[in-house]
Amino acid sequence: MNKNNLIIVILIGLLAGALAGGAVALLLDGGDDNGGGTVATTDTTSTGGGTSTDEVACTMEAKLCPDGSYVGRVPPDCEFAPCPELPPVVQSENIKVYAPEQGASITSPVTISGEARVFEGTVNYRILDENGTVIGEGFTTAAAADVGLFGPYTVAAAFSQPLTPIGRIEVFNYSARDGSVENLVTVRVMFTPGG
What we know:
Among the domains are: about 55-85, no CATH class; about 90-190, Sandwich (Immunoglobulin-like), CATH 2.60.40.2550. Helices cover about 15% and strands about 40% of the residues. It contains one helix and 14 strands. The strands form four sheets. Strands 8-14-13-10-11 form a five-stranded mixed beta sheet, with no helix packed on it. β13 (about 165-175) and β14 (about 180-190) form a beta hairpin. The longest helix has 27 residues, at about 5-30. It is elongated and about 105 Å long.
């Protein structure tokens, strides 16, 4: 065997040995790079003041909250951060209104949103001034996954200029049996001047 071939064989042997040593070290270490759902803890004990703190690195998971936002895990226990609180819900048995909130100042068009569990998903609304004059009305459909389940609805409801600064939004459904108003939810609102 000539000198060049001998050098190549030695280099290949060294490379194979290094790879095998790295694999053994990885197996002994557990192979965890803290990306697999575990928590890495580092003790940073201070010898001078006698205090001890632990630095905790949490996994980068996210949780979907009911309002559509996401939260991650937070130290020290790596539990999910609390979800933001939903706005106060005005509701009847089968209709919930998330927006607008009670007492909100509104302009046209106003976004009306919530969840409903009503016949054929049809959610009706009307906007009235303080005198009871209807200044806007219409309907939208709640997108329920199946019969008997709540489904979300959202509508941009236009309305004409009110004669009073205060009014209300009524969200309801009509009875399939006799056409009467059911599940009426009333949200008191203030009209923004010029809106």
